[in-house]
Amino acid sequence: MRVILVHGGVGVKPTPERQAVLRESALTGYQALECGLLDAVEGAVRVLEDSPLFNAGYGSELNLDGEVEMDAAIIDGYKGRFGAVAAIKGVTNPVSVARRVLEDSPHVLLAGDGATRFARKMGFPEANCVAPERRDDWLAARWGQERLPSGIDTPASPFFGLSPTQGQAGGQAPDCQIGCDTVGCVAVADGKTAAASSTGGWFMKWPGRVGDTPVLGGGIFASRRGAVVASGLGEVFIETLAAKLVDELLEKGLPPQEAAAEVIRRLGRREQGFGGVVVASVDGRVGAAHNTASFPVCLIIDGKVVEEFEAVKVDS
Ligand code: GLY
């Protein structure tokens, strides 16, 4: 059985334009399965990174300084090999840099200037990651920021990327129009698994802040049992090792949908515990759960887009 499951981030309004890009991402990933699982998850995530409609790569939200700093990771669940970058700047496809970390370095995680230098050494050219829409969000939020006494308590959403002009500040998951969180993909083929994830992180985050996306067991995990990627408030995913917990529940025999729902239920009991996970088990079953306004996904099984598949909203 061959499976590709991609997501566009929690809180992301599933507009026709976004659904079309998600579908393209899943189809690209599925076609790349011919070359291998890592090609598939990397290829799927690259499509989402190239779109200004998702918070990753070119569509990344800006940090407090008006810069884009991105996190990305990729994992081979069969071999147990992992590569990640954190707070990297000036590349449009950080997931591909993460793959080079996995395949062409002795390390598993490179951060900040070192990650950017590594990308240049690997031949990734300097690239503009600031989409005009994201710059506009930042300018609007900064205008509000100037009226605050301290820098870190931004009046903009600390997470979902909404500017004050949209009137939805605060930690509750809003019905996001333009800002959003993290993209990712899980894949299964020939009894093996892989996953990849990429994000611009919090809108107006503190420079240097790293979320769950490049943290093994926090926002991403894969094993010989299954693969999982997360979207949501990264700090809580790290503190609860949410992605690893999904894998442990698969090991206990829970079906992927139940494992996903249980982890989101537990997450929801924590302050700011907003998010979602997508899961695929090595036998080709899948799950997707969240506790936010929306969590667009696209699933392909054995070459067919499963139109009716949706992430399940879970109450805490
Ligand atoms: N989930 C993405 C982040 O918190 O950075």
Automatic annotation (TrEMBL):
Record key words, sorted: Hydrolase
Pfam families linked: Asparaginase_2
GO molecular function terms listed in the Swiss-Prot or TrEMBL record: beta-aspartyl-peptidase activity; hydrolase activity, acting on carbon-nitrogen (but not peptide) bonds, in linear amides
Signal peptide stretch: none
Enzyme class name: hydrolase
Site (Cleavage): D181, T182
Gene Ontology CC annotations of this record: cytoplasm
Catalytic residues of the enzyme: T182
SUPFAM superfamilies per UniProt: N-terminal nucleophile aminohydrolases (Ntn hydrolases)
EC number: 3.4.19.5
Matching InterPro entries: Ntn_hydrolases_N (IPR029055), Peptidase_T2 (IPR000246)
UniProt-recorded name of the protein: Isoaspartyl peptidase
Protein encoded by which gene: iaaA
